[in-house]
Design a protein that fits this description.
This protein is α+β, with helices and mostly antiparallel strands. It has 11 helices and 8 strands. The protein has 2 domains: 199 residues, Endonuclease I-creI (Roll), CATH 3.10.28; 78 residues, no CATH class. α9 crosses α11.
Length: 314
């Protein structure tokens, strides 16, 4: 089971007492997965489609809690690769369905499609329920072990913009893009995803997400420290090898005994301790010279070796 399915199963078990929140949640669900039917005498009906059985039960419960309508539930096998079950909830055409759609704010009095749900979203609790319904109907979220990504997909640009505005009221940094024939409201930040899960009431999923996220962040921090330490170690080894090569060249060309005492001292020290860091060399010399002092002496030896390595002028 995907992490998104786990979140939806948890959300579908939530029971909302307030009728206003039930309407907001059902409205978002219908905006996501509902289509209108026209039956005899031009009476309206509704089809709602989902691949999640818990979401299907949630929709039936929400509809039955407020409206006396006849519902048929059909299950078919998907044709896609995963071949998941597809649940179709059909609210049979009747005058009550017109009342349902008008109450949800999906149609206006003249039966035209309403473009905004502002009237349902005045209270924070209703906005939370609205986002919950949108996620149940067309949301997905990656497992926190991978890339952080949560999205709500809809074919309705007005609905997508409404979702974006609602998220902004909770200070969630969501963005809107298009994908083929759909519009996608998405979140890419871990903190924002946890905020969204908290807002819609997915507290179990939130804890699971945060637990994995903490482990992931600690692992990444350790990896950065290890990589940094490895890089520093490699730099130390490369520098020591280069210093020894310079010293050997000077010994071959002019002899270490002909160097100034200070330079001869660090040259012999390096040959005696080829793997030591500069700080370790300072400690070996009992602090008689600073790390900066040793570094500048090695730079002088490198300069001398560079001059000796140049071919003699003709």
């Amino acid at each position: 089971m995907s992490f998104a399915a786990e979140v939806k199963n948890e959300l579908a078990r939530l029971h909302t007492e307030k009728s206003c929140c039930q309407l907001a949640e059902l409205t978002a669900l219908m905006r996501m997965g509902g289509t209108m039917l026209i039956g005899g005498r031009n009476q309206l009906g509704v089809n709602f489609t989902t691949e999640n059985a818990a979401v299907a039960r949630k929709v039936v419960t929400l509809i039955k809690s407020g409206f006396d309508v006849k519902i048929q539930i059909m299950v078919s096998r998907g044709r896609r690769l995963k071949k998941n079950n597809i649940y179709v909830i059909r609210v049979l055409p009747s005058p009550v369905v017109t009342e349902l759609l008008a109450t949800l704010g999906i149609i206006n009095g003249d039966r035209t499609i309403a473009r905004t749900d502002v009237g349902l979203l005045r209270k924070a609790c209703c906005r939370r329920a609205y986002l919950r319904g949108a996620f149940l109907g067309g949301g997905s979220v990656n497992r926190p072990e991978g890339e952080y990504h949560l999205e709500l997909v809809t074919g309705n640009i007005d609905f997508a913009k409404t979702l974006l505005r609602v998220m902004k009221t909770f200070r969630i940094p969501a963005r809107l893009t298009d994908r083929k024939q759909d519009y996608v409201v998405y979140i890419k930040e871990g903190d924002a995803i946890t905020t969204f899960l908290q807002i819609i009431g997915a507290h179990g999923a939130l804890l699971a997400f945060e637990n994995v996220r903490v482990v992931k962040d600690v692992r990444n921090r350790v990896n950065r420290l290890v990589n940094c330490e490895t890089a520093n170690l490699q730099k130390t080894v490369d520098a020591a090898i280069r210093q020894i090569e310079n010293i050997n060249l000077i010994a071959e060309k002019v002899g270490l005994e002909n160097l100034p005492p200070a330079l001869r001292e660090v040259a012999e020290l390096r040959l005696s301790h080829p793997h030591a860091t500069l700080q370790e060399l300072v400690q070996i010399m009992d602090g008689k010279i600073t790390k900066s002092g040793i570094y500048h002496r090695f730079r002088k030896l490198e300069q001398i070796a560079g001059e000796l390595a140049q071919p003699p002028e003709q």
